Structure prediction request, 640 residues.
Amino acid sequence: METLDAESLAMLEDTLRKTMLSKSGAELDAALAELGWAEMLSEMPDTAIPLVFRLLGETGSHASILNDVLLETIGGLPGGTPPMPYAGGGWVVWERTANAEPTLGGLPLRRVPEGETMRLGDTRRAAGWWLVGTARAMLNLARQHALDRVQFGRPIAQFQAIRHRLAETLVAIEGAEATLGLPGDESPDLTAMLAKAAAGKAALTAAKHCQQVLGGIGFTAEHELHVHVKRALVLDGLLGSSKELTRRAGAGLRARGSVPRLAYL
Amino acid sequence: MSNELFDPATFRTALREWLDENDLTPPPGDQSLDAHQAQHLRVLKALYDADWMRYGWPESAGGLGGPDILRAIVGEEVVGRGLDHPGPYSMLDVLTPTMIDYARPELAAEMVPRLLSGQETWCQGFSEPGSGSDLASLTTRAVQDGDHWVVNGQKVWTSFAQYATRCVLLTRTGGPEVPNHQAITAFFVDLDSPGVTVRPLRTMHDVDEFCEVYFDDVVVPADRMLGRVGDGWKLAMDLLPYERSTCFWQRIAYLYARFDALVDEVKGQGAASDSELGEVYLALHTLRCRSRATQHRLAAGHKLGAETSIDKVLLAGAEQQLFDTVRDLLPGRIELTDDPWRTEFLYSRAATIYGGTAEVQRNIIARRLLDLGKE
Prediction:
């Protein structure tokens, strides 16, 4: 399973997408386990993490598998729910089953009093892919709405103000994907931190512009947008928000007195 | 020897060693444009004589072969070390591929080494007073007269024309019945031809690199045509991928070098500046990662197109954010002290204008990448 040819990869993507569109939460966890998620994660993480987490974002589904990425890093026992840092210096666990905590958008997160500092590079990268998937989902919804919605006698996609918001969203997403795609050989933690920051920022940018383009309908629970907006807000805060990670990267520069290049040709 | 150097990492290491041993630092003091130009030519000559400037260019044009990425690496080292300014250096990356792709092979073989070795400077005569964002509306005319063409018109924003010996010039050769994109023809024009007048523009940042260039009955031999009649628009479009790959990479190196300087100046200020430094870093890092991916796509043989508008939007945004932050973190510096930060801050205002405005880029992204249809 170490490498997949393009055709097998496309088939896997198709299967995953269909599964995620029909299941969410604990049911999706079970389905992913059946599809070999544990093996994918240990044998081909560089393919599996971007693919699976991006699809979670694109489909708006959710599963507790960020836990697995973190457990893989720290060598924890399968099935565990290690506390993860949350914005503002707090800690949460991502429970394996639905809970009664009122987390925005229905993710089974629960605040816990404390946790242990650990290496979060791969987990941040996974959350980053999830965020850009979420951002792409919002962009697709807003793009389709702009083409369909007629006002003043024409599709609103013809108005430059609308076009530029959507263009701005695509720039943010593509930029974030580039940071996620950088091999972090030299400084994996810093590379992952910046990638998570870029992805969080892209998702928040997408949420802002797409919500505006969708107008009134995007504010209703009848339209799908709100699921993604809420997902973006929660995932941005998880493992450190874009703002926090950016500030931390800035502090690192100040301490070092120079700017690590990180990306080379 | 050369084949080993075709590997980017090996090439970079060898180039760095050479640059460490051969000091090409600009002489201190003189910040005039004339001094920059002298330094530009000095650096090119030294790098050409030592072969570095010949890698990544085909042997047919005096190069030593190897992947395009080697050029980006030379640009990164030269500009990132402050040996040359990004503006003059970028002309190489833009105009050389154009000559190789469009000039007669003998003309390219004769001329390209003169540019790369710092014997000559060339300029790019595209924009006109009436044709900025709408470049295809240009009106400088070329009319055939036997075995030569006669050019009349005016160009503007022509960088470094006052130092240039030649100009890659876009002209209109088609009549009103010919669609814009087939009515344009490019020439390689000697700027010492009778009838050429170059007048530098005074700019707000006091570096007079932009010129107006007037053409009054300028005679250009027919064998100086680049491509064929009507190929000019295609030439202009084909030049963009180079401007937005190797050329952007060295500009990014310049921005990182200036960010290094800022971090060094403010590192004693404490945590208050962390967010602003971090925001700049995130913008530069995002740009650098995107540009790296673009260089790799070019290297893999992909044809670059509208997606490079994303690179351009990221570059302009990061550049202005960097210098806005310089002004915020070094209060009063730009206004009260006459040093390079002032010039650079002011120049950065142009980043969302030149090379296709921020608005034009977003229009391209909306139309071509998001497929939103016509406005």
